[in-house]
Amino acid sequence: MISVVLSLDDLILEFSDGSNLQLISASRMAEATGLLPEDVLRGLPALEGEADDLKSPEFEVEGLALPAEDVTACSCCCPRKVADANARSSKKQSAATDSHQVLHLQRDLNYLDKVHEEKDLFIQKTRGELCASRQRIHLLTRQQENVAAEVAAEKEAGNVAAVGRLGATFSRLCSELDGERQLVGKITSALKESQNDMWHIEVEQGRLEAVRKALQEEVAAMGQHLQAQAAEQLCKEKAAARKVERAQQLRIREGVRTQREHGLRHQKLVEDVQRHHRIAVKFLKASLGRVRERERQEEMESREHLQRRMDAVLSLKRHIRANRETLQKSQAWGQARAALAEQKAQAEREAVLAQGGDAFKHLSHQRRRQELEAQKRAFEKEQSLQKRRIVARILKEAAEEGRRKTRLSAAKARARLTLRDKTWRYISDLCEGAPAAAAGPTLETEYPAAPKATHLVQAISSESVQGDPGGAASQEVDTLAQPEILGLWNEDCEARQDRGLRDAPAPRAVSPNPPVPREDADRRPMGGSALDEALPARTGARLRGGRGRRRGADGRGGPGRPFNSKPGLIHFKDFNVGRVYKKTIKLINATYSINFCKLVGVEAHLRDFIHVHFDPPGLLSAGMSCDVLVTFKPMVNKDLEGNVSFLAQTGEFSVPLKYSTKKCSLSLDKQLVDFGSLVVGETASRTITLTNIGGLGTKFKFLPTCEPDTSTSMLKMSSFLLSDDKSLYERVLPSLSEQQLDGDRSSQADVQSQKGSAKPGSRELGEGLPVEPERTTLTPITEMPPSEEQTEIRLGEVTEGDIGPFSSVKVPIIFMPVTPGEAQANFKVMFKNQQCPALYFRARGAAVDAPVWVPTPHVDLKICTYGRLYQDSVLVQSRSKAALRLKFEVCRELRAHMELLPQMGYVQAMSSCSVQLKFKPRHSLPDDAGKYFDKERRVLEAPMTIWVADQVKPVGFTVHAVVTTSDLELSPSEVDFGHCTIYEAIRTQVTLCNHSLLPQEFGFIGLPKFVDIQPNDGFGTIQPLESLLLDVVFQPSKAREYSFELVCKSEINRQFRVSCRAVGVHPPLELSHHQIKFRATALYDTSVATLYVVNSHLSTKSLTHEVPCVRSQGASLMGPTSFEFLPPPGAPLTISPAVGTVLPGKRCLVQVAFRPVLPDEEICREALEALSREAESKLRKDTATQRRDVRQQSLAPMRLHNQERLFRNSMPQNPELQKQELEASCDDLQAAQAALARAFEGKFNKFVVPCVVAAGDVKDNKSGESLSFSPHNTLYLELWCPAVAPPLVVVSDKGKTTFNFGDVAVGHRSIKKVLIQNFCCEDLAVEFSVLNPHGPFVLLNPFSRLRAGEGQVLALCFSPQDSVQARETLDVVSRRGTLPLTLVGTGLASVLSCSIRGGILDMGYVLARVSVSSSFKLQNDCSLPIKFSMRLDSLGPARSHDRELPQFLASCSHRTDVVGTQNYSGQSVFSVVPVEGVIEPGRTQDFTVTFSPDHESLYFSDRLQVVLFDKKVSHQILLKGSAREHMMFVEGGDPLDVPVESLTVTPTFDWEHREEVEEPRPILVTLDYVQLDTDMPAPPAIRELHVGCIRSTQLSPKKTVEFSVEGTAALQHKGFSMEPSRGAVERGQAKTITISWTPAADFDPDHPLTASALLQLRGDVKETYKVIFVAQVVSGS
User: Fold this and answer.
1) Contacting residues for 1628 by C-beta, under 8 A, at least 6 apart
2) In 1522-1567, which ranges are continuous DSSP H helix?
3) Which of 176, 278, 686, 1528 is in Cβ range 3.0-4.6 Å of 1659 for a Cys bridge?
4) How far apart are the first and last CA of the chain?
């Protein structure tokens, strides 16, 4: 209870628990140190007014800001102002303290009001409880009265049980009534106390009303002050906003002006770009044209190449045909010559015979003469070859000597190289592929090697051979002194000195009498014959003796030239046909001795054009000379070469002659035209001179080319060959040009063309090189379109024309740069004369830009996004020596998106400045930019312009940027999760697509607690143009409708939303586990997990706890609820029970089993593949065997070929069809299953099993209709099912786990051994399941541990005891898994059927000591072969046991021995064949039983047992037989003796006196007449006797047995009758005597009737039987 005490100075609130609350008045608030305890203040809630006051920022800011301003102002004011400021500051501090006290007072008043409200609420609640208690008291009183009335009624009725029950109820009501009355008293007292407290609080509130009003007025004043401050602050902000708006308008005006300027500059840049684009298009078209032209040329060349190959093939065919015809002709000619020789010999023989001579002798002399001539020719030929070898050896020694001297003087010779030697050295190096080092630095740097040096080598080699008359002889000699290309050595003198020796053929050089042509003989001077004959002989002798090596006048040793000519070459060039040319040469004696010289002559093909005038001077001293006049009068326009031969004392020498026609020798004065540096826009011109040093003019044409200089070597040749060496150049170039144009032609076609164009007698043509006539047609020239550099460097006006002999032409080259940088162009000069190769040169220059330039003309802003600001700095440099004013301009289209700051500036001399580039692309950029923006590639190329003062051409640079969006797209935009239970989560996928070209970071923020986004909790980075799949997981916590949004925010603070909705469901059932993770289960093993289905729906009150419902609708009905699990079809899962009902508050146990198996389709496919492989291997093996047999047996290869073809045809052509024809058996499927299990690599599956729920009990649904399952209440069970390879695998029998023992006979056993291997990487403890102890299967050798990789053999035994099909499973259990082994076997009982019915085989009557056989059959009716054995009891071990009492002394009922009378001899009476054996299934075995008695007895018997497998007795056959001494017997009647032999000795009878002592044998026949109770007469009593005759093979005097009955009349009198009374029985037959009795009328039933008769049998002996009849009447009841 709270008590309130109010005074003027302080207020104290006293609580009922002893604590008090002191309220300080306004006058003493400053003195108070604390108002409320800390624990009380922490527990009190914040009041509304207090919170409002605390949240107003002006309340404290104003009080703190003003003193700070005063302090700032005091630093610059007078002391009076400082004092005023201090006063104001203290005043404001007191005001702040008062406001703080007011705040506390207001909080205390608010707390008092709150206590008042709570106390009022408590009073109302107490009153309500008081009313409710009074109502319960009234209700209990009425119930008490009703119970009292019922008690009185039941007492009257005498119902004691009801009275007791009602009495207990009445007592309970009384106790409840007393409790309620006590509760009413307590509530009344509490209500009174609360009312008293309420009154005290109201009194205190009335007293504090004045304080409350003062506080309200102070708060109102404070609010007005704050409003005034807010109004003043608003005015200041409006003024600042107007200032900012004016600045913004100024910036807008400046931006518009800048955009206008940028537009103008942009327009100009656009025009420049368009112009450059047109130029680029033009160049592109030209390039495409060149490419197409090149492709067309390549196509033409390929066609020409194919045509040449076809022509070559056709030519080869023609040559082959011609050669074949030539061969036939030569053979025919040979045959004709042989026939002519034979005819000639025959004619000579006839002529000799006609003259009377000896024809044989004449022919032998003639043949001998021919042989001698042939030997002489062979000897001469061998001598000539020997001479050639000697000369070759001499030349080789000379060459080695010259090579040594050349090596020693290499440096000196290299220093003395002439221009001609350098040129030829360069050509030789170039042809060999080596770098042209000898040609000097200019040749190395400016002219690369020609790519087709092979053609040049071939041409020059052939030319060198052609120019050397003695080349054929020199090539035959294998000497290292010759170069690869003749004429390239710089020792010209020595080469020319050696040439005389090489030119002369070897026979002339060594022959003492060389043959001289007729023409030379005519021209030989008078008196010179002796000298001519003596000099060669003496020279040859000197050469052979080595005396000819004398030092010449030049100081060099060796056999040098005797005379040197000056000049060394007689060359007539550029001659005209018909004119006469003369030249004089001097011959100088080059030896140290006196020598003489004689003219021999010129070569034969030059005699028509050359005349040599030479007067022999006689003997010439060393160094003396003489003149020779050579006159040349050309008759044909043709190049000629030859020698003028002279004869000296030391030998013959010659001076070379050469005659060259007029030719073009063209060259350029330079190969590089360098323009140097030039400013863009200026023009420079250079000239290049084309010079013709030849005597023939031609047409020329200058063309630009893009091809590399492939004719550098040709240019070198044309530029550096002197006039004296043009003949070789003129012959090499046509052949080289032909090879370059025509390609590789066949050798036969070339030979034919050479033969066709050659002239007979021509020396050059004879050596194989064709001479082509001069062509006057102009070669077609392909003009290449000029490139950009060629447009800057181009030819002048004069590009083609005529150049005369010994003249030159100047052609201008113009350089007009357009863009800064280096420019280069290639040109070539084409000529009409095809013997003149094209000449190449190049031009280069450097263009320098304007004084102002941008070092980076392309500003790359990379990738930009819309709406973002990007900046970069552009550097502008100046090479000018004065400051320049610059104006920066943006194109008009991009002024709204791009800006250059500043728009105008200055760059100092030889300095640089930078301009700021700002780029903020807006979404209207693609439309505004127009042609500068590629919408497909999103590429912006914006031209910027820099205008330089006093400069017409502006400076431009380009801004490149790839503009992309920053949008992220979420699809779908709306997600509907549908109905979801509170026990599960629904996952759906949302695609997040990045349309930007930049990677973006994203994150989903503000997610509800029931939503989760994965991966990475909804945060990550998405790559450009990438789409990510995000999993949105929704798991409701309550059953209601959900509607929410997913917000995705990018790194630039852009938001993208997806709206979602769902319905939460609380199902009536729940699962104890919603997720089950099975262990790693091996194949064909089983893992079991358990869970519960719980029904927790016990009440429908939603206020006390959550109830099952859909959305927030009404609760589900309470009662039994059914469920059903629906596993996926084909899943290796078993759920038990799958259907059930759960009562409220109960739960149901559910077991889930996981057993991984291999699919049947995969097993079948593997089995078919294995069968296919096996069939293919078998077929291949059979085919190989058949082929091997065929190879061994066949003799003809054609037969072998035919049989192999048959084998190939017999093989299956289509493996798929063969696979379809195969059918896998059960064993094959098991083997395939085992193979797949061993190769199994593991598999993981995840299954979601729905569990549908319905109201009601499944058992109550008797109609058969399924319950109505609600789709919204469906539960889901998630199963993780990992499958692994089995750790234990059966290795034997192809891995089969099913072991079929087959059919095993009952009582037998079969053992199978199984090899089990541990494929696991660890040791396993192994256990075995328990087999049926009463079953047929037994595990013989269990083991407890199996090491890793180890195998163990299990022995399994199957021993059936009954005929039954047995099947059991033996589980090999380990920690990793279980290996089930299925054991199958069939126990078969041995079933034999016997042909003997009844089990008795009666052998009948047999003569003693005679054997009789009988047969029977046993048939095997089972599927197993049966082993049998026959056993007789008489031969068994039981017969040897001692008996306690003989069998004949025992009663008949106690007799158990079936073995009767036996032979006296100890042999068995009965025998059976065969004794043992095997009966195959379904077969029949015949048995023969032989009866061999050795004495007479009627009780021969034995038992035959059929024993199967030495264990089981299948059949028991009783063997019976009787033996008689004679051939007759009587059978029938009652037995009169025992069936066991007596122990007495059988007496010996005398068969001769047998009839005298024999007594009749008795036969007792008992007749029972049955007296019936009816009036019908009873049938007579009938008995039978059988009289028979034994069949025997013994000789007997009588074949039949006769019988007769005596005393039949007496019998008839007594009512007996015997029919027949007399008769005869054949052997092997038996007759029946029927005895009947009918009692007479006077028969006394109490006394039996007795009668007798004699039965006599006559056969081999006579026997008499006394038949005794005993008749009686018996009752029929």
Assistant:
1) 1589, 1590, 1591
2) 1554-1557
3) 1528
4) 120
CA distance 3 to 196: 9
Distance CA 571, CA 234 (A): 117
Under 8 Å between Cβ of 1200 and 1187: no
Phi-psi region of 1399 (alpha: psi -120 to 50; beta: other; left: phi over 0): left
In this structure, of 357-366, 871-880, 986-995, 1201-1210, the range with the lowest mean pLDDT score is 1201-1210
Rg (CA), the chain: 72
DSSP-derived pairing of the beta strands 839-848 and 672-679: parallel
For the packed helices 712-720 and 419-432, what is the interaxial angle rounded to 10 degrees?
A: 160
Q: Helices 726-742 and 453-467 meet at what angle, rounded to 10?
A: 140
In which element (H, E) is residue 191 found?
A: helix 160-207
Q: Cα(998)–Cα(1020) distance, rounded to whole angstroms?
A: 14
Strands 912-919 and 898-901: antiparallel
Looking at residue 1127, what DSSP letter applies?
P
Which of 571, 613, 566 is closest to 590 using CA atoms?
Answer: 566
Q: How far apart are alpha carbons 1263 and 1259 in whole angstroms?
A: 10
CB 1253 within 8 A of CB 1266: no
Distance CA 1318, CA 1008 (A): 53
d(C-alpha 516, C-alpha 523), whole Å: 11
Are the C-beta atoms of 839 and 828 separated by less than 8 Å?
yes
CA-wise closest residue to 700 among 826, 791, 827: 827
- Tokens representing 1019? 């945060």
Q: What are phi and psi of 1375, to 5 degrees?
A: -70, -30
pLDDT at 714 exceeding the cut of 80: no
Tokens of 447: 């002219």
The CA distance from 1512 to 1501, in Å, is 23
> What is the pLDDT averaged over residues 86-92?
62
Distance of CA 1407 to the CA centre of its chain: 97
Give Cα separations from 1630 to 148, 947, 1667 (angstroms).
116, 159, 18
pTM over 0.70: no
Contacts 24+ apart (CB under 8 A), 761-769: 761/605, 762/605, 763/469, 763/605, 764/466, 767/465, 767/466, 767/471, 767/472, 768/462, 769/462, 769/463, 769/466, 769/731, 769/735
Most confident of 1177-1181, 1205-1209, 1367-1371: 1367-1371
What is the H or E stretch that residue 250 is in?
helix 209-355
Contact 939, 926 (CB under 8 A): no
Confidence label for 609 from pLDDT (cuts 50, 70 and 90) = confident
| pLDDT(1092) > 90 | yes
By residue count, the chain amounts to 1677
| Angstrom distance (rounded) from CA 508 to CA 522 | 19
Q: What's the rounded Cα separation, in Å, for the pair 1587 and 1665?
A: 11
Spatial distance between the Cα atoms of 530 and 1384, rounded to a whole number of angstroms: 130
Instruction: Specify the 3-state DSSP secondary structure of 476.
Output: helix
Planar angle of CA 1277, 1282, 1285, nearest 5 degrees: 155
Residues with Cβ within 8 Å of 571's Cβ and at least 6 positions away in sequence, in order, are: 657, 658, 659, 660, 724
How far out from the chain centre does Cα 559 lie? Answer: 81
Q: How far apart are CA 1291 and CA 1352, in angstroms?
A: 10
Lookup: tokens for 782: 């392909």
Give the relative orientation of helices 209-355 and 160-207 as an angle to the nearest 10 degrees. 110
The DSSP output letter for 697 is -
* Helix, strand or coil, per DSSP, at residue 107: helix
